[in-house]
Design brief:
This protein is mostly beta strands and 640 residues long. The protein contains no helices and 44 strands. The strands form eleven sheets. Strands 1, 26, 27, 28 and 29 form a five-stranded antiparallel β-sheet that branches. Strands 30, 32, 35, 36 and 37 form a five-stranded mixed β-sheet that branches. The protein has a four-stranded antiparallel β-sheet with strand order 2-3-4-5, with no helix packed on it.
Length: 640
């Protein structure tokens, strides 16, 4: 189990009567390179997690002599590092999104200026869309550039139910792969096969600047996006609300428009960073807004220049607004993900730069740079009617920010990968302040990948392990060793803590769900063995104590019963017996709980280990017994 760390988080409102957000970080890790790394997106497969970032590649002696590559960090499902690889050419690559298919293959969506290095499919002019397919070891399966001769930005990706990939992003092009442009920046959506071949394509736009940030597949097999549009012409056929509006688009499976609508206020509005379809057929979306009129409500600082709020909107299945709310303080807020919860509430993620005013409470401050307001990852909970119920800030005294990299495990459990700016202690100036909440950093004052797991410990209290199994009576002479086993309910988050009373009865070797007791050769009497689970969220009650009768077996007529050290126990595929020093051929018999002989294992002279392939046997409790070197060894083993 990882070493668990608690962060100092935002304050808890005392008047909340609803369930609250995760307040406990049960583990965290810092990943990255020696240069600047900025997180963009994350995806989880059955047995791994992949984080997509941008990394700076220094190409010369000066700070400005560099280019940007894609950086992929792979961890296991517990956040433990597996590998890290970068992808790109000699010019800049910009990450957009990451997706996986049902086979565990990974797709990277990006933009590129390069036509060398990993980009072997050529460049169509300027900045192209770039899609890369990699396997589980990070090797490139194929890569392909898409777009036209003008500027194309990063490719966002969505894995489809039919096994294809839907890619989308903004473009200025009107040639090569992009067949039309409506006058300025348009939205291009195209579907590709697992081999990268385009099978469907459609451009959406107007004569002004249009953009797209997220897209989801709907229950009917079509698609929904809350994009950005600037004017009512071209493909935009809806009444404008202001300068830039949120463009609601419902598409069928063939990318034809079923309905569309513009929502927003008189200022700049941008939507759809996070989207979710709801059980009633409607949608929840979160974007950003500078407006304080029209469809926008709750914007508290309309007179502050360059101020953005997160704008959360719930609409019905035809785009009619049911409620909306603008959230933030007197600085900028950026939107990220939004999730619908089982109790009808919503969890919203973003980044806040506001200094504990407006809706922001618990923002981390800096004493290092008092004139610089730094950002925190901001997490909010809204009721089904859009009421702010709870909010949390995650960060340090420097900067942490969030893009798209959030995985929801449950309403009270999230995996979050943000960008953290972390300062290490200065060995020459021990009095200098350091960041106390985002630990580590590969270099002093660097942007790194900050990956952590946040839970509400109210729902993650450790459970008492199962009843202890093992011998009820033992011989303590000759430093006899006996193994006892239990089952930890949630081994991913909990570890076993064993207790032997009296302590002088023997020494414990903790093997998590089993323990080896080396009995004190002079102890005789009754001992009590119990176990509990512990985690960063607390500890469980101890199990009922297993009472063990300990005797000193010295009589000539008595058999000195001993046990072998074996592992793993419980076992799945094979189990290893550690053998004493023997001079002649022996054997160990395996029997089931009814005494039926299951297997006979032969032991050669001077053999130190015995391996039993047990994968073909049914799960359950078994017993072994054998006379080895003139002594009888007995014990219990478990196959799971």
């Amino acid at each position: 189990m990882k070493s668990l760390v608690l962060l100092l988080l935002c304050s808890i409102f005392p008047y909340f009567i609803y369930s609250q957000l995760p307040r406990d970080i049960i583990w965290q890790s810092i990943y990255g390179t020696s240069e600047e790394d900025v997180v963009q997106d994350i995806v989880e497969t059955q047995d791994a997690i992949y984080i997509l970032s941008r990394t700076r590649m220094i190409t010369g002696p000066g700070y400005d002599e560099h280019h940007n590559d894609l950086l992929v960090t792979k961890t296991n499902i517990d956040g433990e590092y597996i590998w890290q690889k970068n992808y790109g050419g000699s010019l800049d690559e910009t990450p957009a999104s990451i997706a996986s298919d049902d086979l565990g293959m990974i797709y990277l969506g990006a933009g590129t200026y390069s036509d060398d290095g990993d980009i072997q499919s050529g460049n169509m002019g300027g900045h192209d869309f770039w899609v890369v397919k990699i396997d589980t070891s990070g090797q490139v399966v194929w890569e392909q550039t898409y777009g036209g001769s003008m500027t194309d930005y990063g490719a966002y990706l969505l894995y489809l139910e039919n096994g294809n990939i839907l890619a989308y992003g903004p473009t200025f092009s009107s040639d090569n792969d992009v067949n039309i442009n409506y006058g300025y920046l348009d939205i291009w959506i195209w579907e590709i096969t697992p081999q990268g071949e385009i099978v469907k394509s459609r451009v959406f736009g107007s004569s002004q600047s249009d953009n797209i940030f997220s897209l989801i597949q709907t229950d009917d097999g079509g698609f929904f996006t809350a994009a950005r549009a600037g004017v009512n012409d071209g493909m935009v056929n809806a009444e404008p609300r202001g300068w830039h509006d949120v463009w609601l688009l419902k598409l069928d499976a063939q990318l034809n428009i079923e309905w569309q609508k513009l929502i927003g206020g008189s200022n700049y509005d941008s939507g759809g960073y996070g989207l979710a379809q709801l059980d009633d057929g409607g949608y929840i979306l979160n974007g950003s807004t500078k407006s304080s009129d029209g469809d926008v409500h709750g914007f508290d600082f309309p007179d502050v220049p360059d101020q953005d709020d997160i704008w959360v909107v719930r609409i019905d299945s035809m785009g009619n607004i049911l409620w909306d709310i603008a959230l933030g303080g007197d600085e900028w807020e950026h939107s990220s993900k939004v999730f619908a919860n089982e109790d009808g509430s919503f969890t919203v993620f973003g980044t806040t730069n506001s200094p504990n005013n407006g809706d922001v409470v618990g923002k981390h401050h800096t004493l290092l740079y008092p004139h610089n307001i730094n950002s925190d990852i901001w997490m909010l909970k809204l009721s089904s009617e859009g009421e702010l119920l709870d909010q949390r800030c995650f960060g340090n005294a420097s900067q942490t920010r969030l893009s798209r990299a959030v995985i929801k495990k449950s309403d009270s459990h999230y995996l979050i990968a943000g960008t953290g700016f972390s300062r290490q202690a200065d060995p020459d100036n021990p009095e200098a302040p350091t960041d106390g909440e985002v630990w580590g950093g590969y270099e002093s004052e660097s942007y790194d990948i900050w990956f952590f797991e946040a839970v509400d410990c109210e729902f993650f209290q450790p459970d008492t392990p199962s009843e202890i199994e093992g011998e009820d009576s033992v011989c303590s002479n000759n430093s006899s060793q006996y193994t006892y086993t239990t089952q930890i309910i949630n081994p991913q988050y909990e570890e076993a803590q064993w207790l032997l009373e009296p302590a002088e009865a023997g020494a414990l070797t903790n093997l998590q769900d089993s323990v080896i007791i080396e009995w004190n050769s002079t102890f005789e009497g009754q001992a009590a063995l119990s176990v509990r689970s512990i985690s960063n969220c607390g500890e469980s009650a101890y199990t009922q104590a297993k009472l063990i009768e300990v005797e000193i077996c010295l009589g000539l007529g008595e058999i000195n019963k001993k046990s072998l050290f074996l592992y793993p126990n419980p076992a799945t595929n094979q189990i290893t017996f550690e053998l004493p020093n023997i001079k002649k051929q022996s054997q160990v018999q395996i029997k089931d709980i009814y005494g039926k002989l299951i297997a006979t294992l032969n032991i050669k002279p001077n053999q130190s280990q015995l391996i039993w392939e047990c994968g073909a046997f049914a799960s359950g409790v078994y017993f072994y017994e054998g006379e080895i070197g003139g002594e009888v060894y007995r014990g219990k083993l478990i196959i799971k």
